Every structure is written in C-alpha cells, then in structure tokens.
Task: structure prediction
Amino acid sequence: MSTATIEAPSSTVARRKKPWLVRRAAVLGAGTMGSRIAAHLANAGVPVLLLDLASPEPDRNRIVTKASEVLKIAKPAAFFESAAARLISPGNFEDDLERLRDCDWIIEAVAEKLEIKQALLRKVEAFRRADAIVTTNTSGLPVSQIAAELSPEFRRHWFGTHFFNPPRYMRLVEIIATPESDPDAVAAISEFARVRLGKSIVRAKDTPNFIANRIGAFALLNTIRVMQAMDLSIEQVDALTGSALGWPKTGTFRLSDLVGIDVLAHVAENFLARVKDERSDVTLPGFLSEMLKRGWLGDKTGQGFYKKQADGSRLALDWKTLEYRPSERTKFPVLEMAKNVDSPAERIRMALSGDPKKDIAAAFYWQVLPDLWNYATRRIPEIADDIVAIDAAMKAGFNWELGPFEMWDAAGVPETVQKMKALAPAVEKMLASGQTSWYRDDHFFDIGTATYQPVPAPEKLPSIQVLKRARGVVKKNASASLLDLGDGIACIEWHSKMNAIGGDIVSLVTQTLRPESDAVAQFDGFVISSDAANFSVGANLMQLLLAIQDQEWDEIDLAVRAFQGMTQAIKFCPRPVVVAPSGMCFGGGAEIALHAAARQPHAELYIGLVEVGVGLIPAGGGCKEMVLRAIESANGQVNSVEFLNALKKQFETIAMAKVSTSAAEARTLGFLSPGDGITMNRERVLADAKERARELADAGYAPPVSRTDLPAPGESVLAGLKLAVHMMRTGEYISDHDAKIGNRLAHVLSGGTLTAGTPVSEQYWLALEREAFLSLCGEARTQERIASTLKTGKPLRN
Result:
C-alpha cells in the first residue's frame, strides 16, 4: 500500500506522551494570511505572538496593531467571538524576537520571496527554543530550499504548513515534510492542527504549488483556455462552473473576485514558471495580465471580473474588450434541471449527458472535465502518493463537494473514456486490471500497486454513511434513520432535503425516544446528527403554507402538538440525548438542540430561533426553554434585576431572529449551556457527541422532571416588553406586523397577564406558544412572508 496521505494519529507521539504541546505560538508576518492564522489560533484558545516589521516611534508595533484592528471588523469574521482578540500579543522583528523563546510553534508567513524568508529565519534561529517547531506557510516556494542554509538541528524541526485563506473557514492544511523533518514533530503539529484547529490534514510533496493549488491553478487556467476557444462570456462560465459540478456556487470568476485576482494570479504565475508538464497550452491570458496592471483585483479594489454598482447591481467584464457591461443572466437547460438535484454525482452525470455537437454546456464540460481528470491522474506520484490525497485537498482547499477522482467515478470511468481523446496511462492500467472505478466501498485504487487499499480515515473516525454500510440501519423512514454507533449509543440521522423537519422526522424521533420504546431499552444513549453540512433549516415551510392556504387549522394544531411532543420526548427521554449540530441550525432545529441533555456542536455553528423572519414565533418549546434559562439564571426570582435582564436578552434574541456566527457566540446567546463542549474539527463531531452521550450514561444519567412550579414573570414584565415594542415601532425601526409579532412573543415569554410569581407548568407555556403560532398563521402578512421566503430564500420585511 502507498504511504497514507491523510494524516492518522501517530503511535510514536502517543508513546512519547505528546512532548510538543502547543501552549503558545508565534506568527511571523501580519499580512492578510499571517494575521488570520493568528486569529484562528486565538479561536482555539492559544496565546499568539504576532510579529512584523518595526515602525518608527512612537508605536513600534503599528503594523501588527493595525492588522489586529482589521481582524476585529473582518468579513467574513476572523474570530469566533471578539473576546478571542485578547490572546494576540503584538510585537516586531527588531524588539521582540527574544519572546520567541516562550513559543512552542513558530509559523513563518512573510512575503513570498525566498531571500526575505531566509533572512528572517536566520534571525529566528538565534532565539528559537531547541525543541520549538518552525514551519512555513509558503504557498509554493520549495520548503527545503527556504531552510537550506540553517543548521541541521533547525532543519529537523522545520517543514511546511500551508493554510488556505481564510484560515477559520477553509479546512485544508497541507503538510510538506522535508527528508530531514522529524516525523514526530510533523505528527505532533498534524494532530494539533486537526484536533485543536479543526483542519483536514493532507500530506503533500515539496513540489510547485503542492497539491490543491497545483490542481486548482491548472483547472483555472484551463477553464479560461476553453472559455476563449468557445468564445464564452464570464457569466456563462460562472454559471457552468458552479453548483452543477459541486463547486462553489460563485463559479470561477466571481470566486476569483472574492479571493483576490492578484492572489490567484500569483499562484498561476508560480505554476507556469516552475511547472513543466504535458499541458504547455495552458498559459496566463493576456486580459488577466492587463487587469493586474490596471489594479482590477476583485472585490478589494471594487472591480475585477465584475464591478459592483451603487444600486447593488453588478457589471460584468467583457474579456475581449476589457470593458464593463450589464451582467447577463445566462440560462442553460441542464443547469435549470440540476437545481432540483441534491446529489452532486447525479448533477455531474446530468452535465455530461448532452450532445457536445449541439449543446454548449455539454461541449464545455466534455473539454474541462476530461482535462482535469487526466491532469490529476498524471500528477501521481509526483505531487501525492495516491488519489485520496488529491481528492481530499480539493474538497478541503477549494470547497468542492467531490474531488476529481470522485467526480470521474460519478460520471462513470468506462463510459467517459470512450469519448475522451486522450487518456492518462494510470487509467489504462486500472481498466486493464479489470477495475472500473477509482473507489469501491471504503477502498481506493492504488496506482502504484494496481490494487484496492483501504481509504485512510483520520483518527479512524467513520462517518454516518460508513457506519450505515458497516452496521446497517436499525429502523428508518423517508427522512430519518436510527443506527447503532456501537458502545451502547445510537444515532438518529436526518436525511430530508436540507434536513427540513417534517412529519417523518417528528414521528421517528418521538417513537424512538419515548420511555417504553424498544430503542430506549436497547441503547444507553442517543446522538442526533448527520453528515450534512447543515444540521437543519427548521420546519418544513412548504407543508405549513399549503395547510394555511387550505385553512386546515386543526391539522396545523395537531402538527404543532406533535412537534412539541417530539421536543418533550428529547428532553424527558430516560436515556441522555446529545444533539450534535453544525452549520445552519435554524428554527425547529434550534428548538431540538435546546431540549437535549447536552449539545456537542461544531465550532462553525449558526444557530437561531428565526421564526420571526417568516411572521411566526417559536412553537416547539423554544420560547419555553429560553424562559427557563432566564428563570434558572436568577434562581427563580422573577422580580429580580438579574431575571429582567436575562429575559430582555432572550426577548431580543428571538424578536430580532439573531443567529450566532459561531458556537462560541451561540453560548453567549443562550443556545448552549456552560457544560456543552465545542468540537473544532467537523469530522470529529459525531465521535465527540457519542463520547459525551457515553459519559452521561456512565455517570448514571437521570432525566429532568417536567416542572409544574415555574414562577410566571407576569403582567408587569409583559407591560415592559410591550413598551419596548411600542418604542421600536414609534421610531420606525419595525413594521406594524413586526410589532404584532413582538407583542405576541412578549405575551408568551411573560406567561401572559398573570400576577408575577404565579406557579405555572411547562405545558402551560407550550399552550401559549401554540396559541400565538396559530393566531399568526392566520395573518395575511405572515403568509406573505412564508411565501416570499420559499420563493427567494430571503425574509420579507412587510
């Protein structure tokens, strides 16, 4: 078997008891990349020394200080929460190199010029602690050459760690070891980056542009070549190279504007200058060189391939004349059909299904994709040992849903090679051996040995899909499944479109978690999670709108009661239920999380009770749980200042449909409890949630008892909340309908017009939620909001 290229834990590191703990780090270079690497280290709770050139008096650290201020307002946000910024300490290369002695990991991220890096590292060598690891964030310079003049001891602790920008969101870190790099040092940083920084680690070879940028640069330049040959427009290519292929929906050129045309041009120029392979027809186009001369670098300069107008519209660049014109909305029949297809594999088959002689889209795809597949195949073993590394790098570094070889499998290798003009020798080798796909079950075709080998799983953490194949499914319906995770823990997985919560999910969750169920007797705990990027977009709005239009009020009431029954089953299940959300967790998804015994979210969690955006309020117990948290925070004293402040905050969170920008912020908004953990690496979420459920079960978990003695905030609190709504309406910050929704929400959160302290039950609050929800469903403006959201995906403020 070839060398594993996706990092797995090192037994050597375990034996040495992890000698390289990263307690403090340093980043050399406060440019865009360096400062954001520092920010993400701070996100992980690591104190960071950020150094750059010294400035004249009085502020010697002005470059770093300015970079730190930019980080605080960066979009997308560099920090999980603003408080993390305090972990970054500013300094400069003249006054503060002595402080490197306290650092366990030093990351060099200065300008991409060999002489600049070498000169700085010569200074660093004098101050580096003997056991400190030093890595470079170069995007393509030879890693060995950078440190060639330094001591053998330095070179043993030296290798490449290539982050992708922005480091918080892009999962890939390419590890580029040299022949002299200490394997234990490489394993230690790989493990730290994977677990603490949440990265997907791929081992790359010390070749130009490494893996992701090597394949990515070719894909970009070849796409431009095909565009010119076919005389297509910028907008046409963006439409063709977006979601239909499982690539970012921005397409090639809009993404280039976002990333920065100068950044992509640098990668492309490095590719062309240092790479001499079979595709000499791929070059830097003249129009791109001219754009660089004119300073048209994309969004950061206000214009690139597109130019944003004052009214929000965009002009598109005509690459032949370098003049801007109104952006044209392009339509290809195959793309219209692909919009309704969830599976990226099926979309790729659909893209290639047309006749290239008659269909422009098919003609484009039949040039771009075979070129990509052949090029990637020919790069083994030059840039990577196997196909897994290339696929993993493109998915984590460029946000592709499928890597090149996974895409080829989706299209069908035997079917496509019949139409391809050229074929890489490795493909012929695979077909000659009688094999017809790059992947088979959980194995990949290893080109070196011409055999199938197991796909290396980081830390041996299988996905839900892998577990399904290995263990089968305990029970399922169209939208949800129950499967055995092992060790006495089961998982409830959702697989509806966008994980929208409908009757099937409600039914399976409720039946599984009720005290008398077979599952409760069989398992010690449960996890609710899925492999999907987003946990849930909330309740199925289409079903709700159709019921409203048919005036099926009794059906809606029953559906709300069933939803509430599900959240109560989660909360009062005799076994611990751990919800493990990631990505979007909206509305009903957030309510489900609120009712769990514990939550184990991914760090990138965007959670919120967003029902106000569609003219409603939470009715699955979300309001109730937020009130309970406020009551508990004030020890039941509903007349106290602490309670009033807490409830006001909860009211604002729901009324303004606030959504957290991270799991850390979700904690401050009250969606996570102090004891809830946060997982940095998306691939570890399921395993961490399972471990948490096992811990709760082993500790003798007992479910909470439904409360019947909750003190209602009462009419005085209701009056205060209504006054706040009135002031917002008077100031024209909200509409009349917003005010109506706000008053309904105030009525629910306060417990109605009761005397403060009147004991009420949890069921009482659920009844208030149902009443308000049904009432708002009958409002014409609520129905307009729901319809608009379904049509445009954006809230209507009517």
In short: The radius of gyration is 28 Å.
